[in-house]
Automatic annotation (TrEMBL):
GTP 1 binds at residues 9-16, 56-60, 119-122. It comes from the Bacteria. Residues 3-163 form the EngA-type G domain. Transmembrane segments: none annotated. This is GTPase Der. Keywords: GTP-binding, Nucleotide-binding, Repeat, Ribosome biogenesis. The keyword Transmembrane helix does not apply. Associates with the 50S ribosomal subunit. Belongs to the TRAFAC class TrmE-Era-EngA-EngB-Septin-like GTPase superfamily. EngA (Der) GTPase family. GTPase that plays an essential role in the late steps of ribosome biogenesis.
Length: 163
């Protein structure tokens, strides 16, 4: 079976956008109706001749902060169980948040390889926003713009190295 890459991160960091870009087609289902649970969505990706399954862990993104955090934790735990490599996505425009640190703690406990993508770095002169995220202790941190598709090559090179 193919290696599994799970995209984990708090709401709105760009998980579905990067998922769609890697999938090369608009597979992630955007469900606007409140109360509808969006389950994890799978697709098949390929990079440098290596095929893999990709999971978008997006889900319920409403309710209070506690509910949101519980949901992220649950989704992350499911994804972590299945994943060979975790793509931990954060938002370079928002900077590091308490929720990011919470997710980081979970991921450290998993003992799975984690690659950090700092998304929304839309301009090369904004790259310095990545440095704070080194504190999370996952090693290299990759600036990307899921919107423009920049930086994703280096990120994917690293991910497929870890299979
Ligand atoms: P998710 O909740 O983590 O799945 O995030 P989405 O993929 O739904 O993206 C949340 C918002 O961030 C949307 O408005 C996207 O258009 C926007 N977004 C995603 N990637 C980028 C990016 O690289 N740059 C900028 N400026 N916005 C982005
Ligand atoms: Mg999403």
């Amino acid at each position: 079976s193919l290696p599994v890459v799970a995209i984990v991160g708090r709401p709105n960091v760009g998980k579905s956008t990067i998922f769609n870009r890697i999938a090369g087609e608009r597979i992630a289902i955007v469900e606007d109706k409140p109360g509808i649970t969006r389950d994890r969505i799978y697709c098949r990706g390929e990079w440098n001749g290596r095929s893999f399954h990709l999971i978008d862990t997006g889900g319920l993104e409403f309710g209070g902060d506690d509910e949101m955090l519980d949901h992220i934790r649950h989704q992350a735990e499911l994804a972590i169980e299945e994943a060979h490599v975790i793509l931990f996505l954060v938002d370079g425009q928002a900077g590091m948040t308490a929720t990011d640190e919470e997710v980081a703690r979970l991921l450290h406990r998993s003992n799975k390889p984690v690659v950090v993508g700092v998304n929304k770095v839309d301009h090369p002169n904004h790259r310095e926003v990545i440095y704070d995220f080194y504190q999370m202790g996952f090693g290299d941190v990759f600036p990307i713009s899921a919107l423009h598709g920049t930086g994703t090559g280096d990120l994917l090179d690293r991910i497929v190295e870890l299979f």
